[in-house]
Amino acid sequence: MGDGDKIRVLIVDDIAETRENIRKLLQFETNIEVVGTAKSGREAIQLSQDMTPDVVLMDINMPDMDGIAATEEIRKKAPSAQVIILSVQGDQNYMRRAMLVGARDFLTKPPMPDELTSAIRRAGAMAREEREKRAQAYVTPAGSTSPLLAGARMTHGKIIMVYSPKGGCGCTTLAVNLALALHNDETRAMLVDANMQFGDVAVFMNEQGKNTILDLAPRAEELDPDIVEEVMIRHAASGLHILAGPARPENAEKVTAAQFTKVLQYLRQLYAYVVVDTCSYLNDITLSVLDISDVIVLVTTQDIPSIKDGRLFLDLMMTLGIPLDKVAFVMNRYDKRIAITPEKVAENLKQQLVAVIPLDERVVIPSVNRGVPFVLDNKAQPAARGVFALAEALRVKLLRAEGEVAEKVTRW
């Protein structure tokens, strides 16, 4: 492995002995290179710009500026750098604050050697992925002399994948209500059913139309707004557009992953948010959605199989080279009587929890059976408030990601 392939690490700690111990620990790793050390948060911010590290190992307690404040500045000024927080305190509040400002991992000091090197490799892969994406985004269009024009091309609708590797977690209910929560006159949303065999999105909204994805997929190369408008089911109560799955399971294979990808890429030109409900099975269609989504709403519940499957899915994302910061982790059907708390699950999966949707069987089940989504029926009840909180968290996450790219383009 050449030097250019090594993961560049910056160590930040106000104690010289700690900096040296970590440096010695990493010197035997052939694919990791310590490019510098800093004894304060302010020095770390400067070195992160000068040395362009892939990974910053950040102590949380320092005299001039704590690690959380320094992390926030580094993520603004060197957005490709991935920060791993090191702290003697395994406090949930510290972890939550660190993740909110953009830290990618949180380890308790002193970390186990294998734990530290694994975290660095994960973060290094994310840094490489972010640099590649930014490099592609900043390519000036042919014939243009201004890189600012590239920024205009980046403004497009966002694809939101709603997914759980464990069936029965309420993904369709969540996708339907989330699309409605995001939809308004200024930022139109739409809902796509990516379950080609047994999709129920239209049924959940009490809408049955003759048109489905089968009417768009064969024309994926020649779509225009009129064709899309003709095929969409329009939800009478809200005006939300729905792209239904095939009416019969035997027609599922008539839609290829390549066609489905092209359809989604076109739809994002027409809508601010494209919410995609997917099945738990990772077939070609689901993997294609995973690949092009701007954010993946990962849904879990309070049972051990769901949590286990969530961990396996996150590991798979790393294997596929998909950045974990695309994940928006959600706990659905939260029952406070169960000892497995959202915080414990978030700690287990090492994912920031963006929303908790309370269990409300008296509202949710009747809404499904009536085909009237509960965010329309009663916005004040707990499940609806949880969905609206999720919608707002996703808006912030997507705007923040767009803002980081726009800021980089402007500086260029």
Oligomeric organization of the protein chains: single chain
Return residue spans where pLDDT drops below 50 for at least 5 consecutive residues.
Answer: 137-155, 405-412
Number of E-type strands: 13
Global shape: elongated
Radius of gyration: 23 Å
CATH fold call of the largest domain: Rossmann fold
Instruction: Report the total helices.
Output: 16
- What is the top-level CATH class of the largest domain? Alpha Beta
Written description of the protein model:
The structure is a single chain. The chain has two domains: 3-137, Rossmann fold, CATH 3.40.50; 156-411, P-loop containing nucleotide triphosphate hydrolases (Rossmann fold, 3-Layer(aba) Sandwich). It has helices at 16-26, 41-50, 67-77, 92-100, 113-137, 148-153, 171-182, 201-204, 225-231, 257-267, 284-292, 304-320, 342-349, 361-370, 374-377, 382-411; strands at residues 7-12, 32-38, 55-59, 82-87, 105-108, 158-163, 189-193, 233-234, 241-243, 273-277, 295-300, 327-334, 353-358. Residues 137-155 and 405-412 have low confidence and may be disordered. Helix 4 links the parallel strand 4 and strand 5 (105-108). It is of the alpha/beta class and 412 residues long. Helices cover 45% and strands 17% of the residues. The protein is elongated, with a radius of gyration of 23 Å.
Task: Supply database-style keywords.
elongated, Rossmann fold, eight-stranded mixed sheet, 17% strand, 13 strands, five-stranded parallel sheet, alpha/beta, 45% helix, 412 residues
